[in-house]
Amino acid sequence: MTAEHTEGWQGLELMRGSLDHCVKCTICETACPVAAVTPLFPGPKYVGPQAERFRTHEPSVDSSLDYCSSCGICTLSCPQGVHVAEINSQARAAMKKQRGIPLRDQLIARSGLEGKLGTPVAPLANLVLGNSLVRALTERTIGIHRDAPLPKFAGRTFQGWARRRPPSETTTDKVVYFHGCSTNYFEPGLGRMTVAVLEHNGFSVVVPPQDCCGLPLQSNGIFDTARSYVRRLVAHLVPYARQGYKIVATSTSCGLMLKREAIEILGVADDDLRLVSEHTYDICEFLADLAADGRLRTDFRPVPLKITYHAPCQQQGHNIGKPALDLFDLVPGLTVVELDRACCGIAGTYGLKREKYDIAMQVGSGLFADIVGANPDLSICDSETCRWQITHGTGKTSAHPVEILHRAYGL
Amino acid sequence: MTETRHADVVVLGAGLAGLTAAVRLAEAGLKVVTVAKGLGSLRLAPATIDILGYAPQRVDSPTASLPGFVAAHPQHPYSLVSAQVLAASVSWLKDHVDGYSYVGEPSTNMLLPTAIGVPRPSAVVPKTMVGGDIRDLSTVAVAGLRVLKDFHPALAAENLQAAAAAAGLSLQVRPVMLDVPVDGEVDVGTLALARHFSDKKFRTAVGAELRRALSDEQAVGVPAVLGLDDVQEVWSQFTEEVGKPVFEIPTIPPSVPGMRLAALLQARFRAAGGRLVLGAQATGPELRDGKLVGVRVAAAARETPRLCRWVVLATGGLASGGIDVDLAGHAAETALGLPVRGPGADQAAFLPSYLADHPIDTIGLTVDANLRPAGPDGEPVYQNLRAAGAIIGGARPWREKSGDGISLSTGYLAAESILQEAR
Ligand SMILES: Cc1cc2nc3c(=O)[nH]c(=O)nc-3n(C[C@H](O)[C@H](O)[C@H](O)COP(=O)(O)OP(=O)(O)OC[C@H]3O[C@@H](n4cnc5c(N)ncnc54)[C@H](O)[C@@H]3O)c2cc1C
Ligand code: SF4
Ligand code: SF4
Hints:
- The structure holds 2 protein chains of 2 kinds.
- By secondary structure, chain A is an alpha/beta fold.
- Helix content of chain A is 52%, strand content 7%.
- Chain A has helices at residues 3-17, 27-31, 44-52, 73-77, 84-99, 103-108, 111-118, 122-129, 132-141, 158-164, 180-185, 188-200, 215-219, 223-242, 252-264, 271-279, 283-292, 313-316, 323-328, 357-374, 384-394, 401-408; strands at 174-178, 204-206, 246-249, 280-282, 306-310, 335-338, 378-381, 398-399.
- In chain A, the strands form 2 sheets. Chain A has a 4-stranded parallel β-sheet with strand order 2-1-3-4. A 4-stranded parallel β-sheet of chain A has the order 6-5-7-8.
- The longest helix of chain A is centred in the middle third of the chain and has 20 residues, at 223-242.
- The relative contact order of chain A is 0.12.
- By secondary structure, chain B is α/β, with parallel strands linked by helices.
- In chain B, the strands form 6 sheets. A 5-stranded parallel β-sheet of chain B has the order 11-2-1-15-18, with helices on one face. In chain B, strands 8-7-9-10 form a 4-stranded parallel β-sheet, sandwiched between helices. Chain B has a 3-stranded antiparallel β-sheet with strand order 12-13-14, with no helix packed on it.
- Chains A and B meet through helix 2, helix 4 and helix 15 of A and helix 6, helix 9, strand 11 and strand 13 of B.
């Protein structure tokens, strides 16, 4: 057992131990969106519980594992409780450690750093990244596909706005907002809407300083750094968790990192993390719980829009169903088309990669066709990278569920 | 303060029993949330509704045999299902899967070949399989694709011919092996093939090859891989291509017919406003003053109660995790901690012969006439709880060929019983 294994040991054993529950029923195979579109990936049962038995400290001869997108749908579908996706993520990290992590993966895994560098020079950065020649070069040199959807820098951070904003009216109900990198650097408007919706419901909203949760690092197999990132974030959040405040996240994948993945995939064994984890809620989960308790304000104005709703794979990983739909039910005038597709393909940074871009687009093709077919005014989705991918694949504007509530409240 | 409630009904489990109950309840206007640890065993099963195949002799008419069967097995779940309910549940299913037509009636078993050529008594089956009823055939071919290594026409043909002869039927069966390459695939399973069959070019090529290989057979059986949600179109076009009736033979998992049925029922549930919570395990009852007011559900990071008026427990049997038996033989019902009727801890784990009847076969819950799980005293544990499907004890589905018939009819009945209270 290596030093790295000692730190991650708990998560590793927890997940790996589940492979003995595999009865080879192939239910996960019927659900995997990647295996459905490419023969390069033999599927979750094979790559997960089956191949894991043969993985030792020797480098593996089988690279197909790298094509797993970590969407987590196999884990969701398995009736026997095998943590297929988690096993795959851990094994991929070990494989990359043995083989070396490409520069490209090192770069795209640092969204916080990119945000910090790009924000002050946003117009220039957007111009450069929007240039097709630059994109072609980046594809050739680094391996980020030239057509892959990249966000635009907003130029102003959400943190900057949050610091300048007048404090919420003091109420006894306090809630902590974990906004994540994408809201901070790319979509600060979502952050402002979230604060407004929460304040409208009588909460005073705390926005602690915060950095990247480490999720992109984790999904690129850079576990050591990912662990230190998530610890740093936990240090910012834990004082509030200790006081019993709930932490709400609008980035559904980063919220899941705190709830589950840091423990189950990175194997961070840490009481502070557990405490933060127990107090973390996806924003729609939080609001739908309020609604079920009769505590959500329902002074909604009609929103005469047709929307499609796609629950991204990472949102499904919370095991909470689709609370966004319960919220939409409360908004008069809204026409909602629930989409039934497991994944848009992007899976964080997977679909950005030159060798995986086409697979990701094919995974998403069913979803794109459904959205184009429904022809909505807005296509709604909880995850930012998925929204960018959906817009890329459909040409339609995509927004977070909170945006609908914000409109309905007339804020 | 308003009373907190997340749904009218929480259904536990997304197999045939859970989905049947959930769709019915949601279509009746109740707010239904289905909570499932994983996808149900429909995706492994042939998607035929086998009602009663052996009792223990082969059954020709389930409806004719059931009264005697139930009299001999008073603890069997079918003892709670009347002929009317059975018939109603079958027509309900037919109405609800119009994208994948089902034919047949509980009154008659067909005899359909399995992938190893055993004639299987089945009452209600997808239209794509009916042509394989060997009672109506005298010459038939069984065709496989060489790329699909889990389907052996020679084995199926030989067994089927022998079994037909033993059953007094005169049937000629000829195996056919097709060599149609599949681009880029190293290891082709049933699901990958079904996706290839959705491609017109591929199925035209296979169809042409098969047409050449056939001679004067009345019909030809192929592995059940003729498309997924597009099965009607794929099947009829492929049949045209082949120029003879083509029927599907269920395969080992993953079962393409099972996926079709599961997808249709799930779509029905969604269309009726039902909500599915996947990857979430029920871990216990939520009680107020001893009354069941919901279910505790383990999700990421925490366990939370899902509050509701009624609960339907359709978590499947031992194989699906609805019941757990530890090494010492102690049995537990995993979702709500209900009393289990089983062999008991003193029962020998192993029997002298591999295929002997083991008492664990019939492990499950005892339920009352309204499918309410009952304690040892026969009294319902909770008034507002119903059980459906393989979690109910007393059956030996794989011997009787009764699994999906029990799941469908008890899922239907559980919903019926709740709807009567709701009205
Ligand atoms: C390989 C195979 C072949 C079969 N062949 C036939 C056949 O030829 N003919 C036939 O009629 N039938 C067949 N069957 C069907 C079988 O006999 C079952 O009786 C029937 O499908 C059971 O349905 P169910 O809905 O009760 O349970 P299942 O389909 O097993 O569903 C159980 C559900 O409950 C969930 N669950 C379990 N525990 C929990 C928990 N604690 N909390 C939340 N969710 C939970 C599971 O994840 C799943 O969604 C076959 C089944 C299999 C697996
Ligand atoms: S669904 Fe679970 S038990 Fe079935 S093959 Fe996949 S990992 Fe194994
Ligand atoms: S995580 Fe997603 S891509 Fe990877 S094996 Fe599981 S279902 Fe397939």
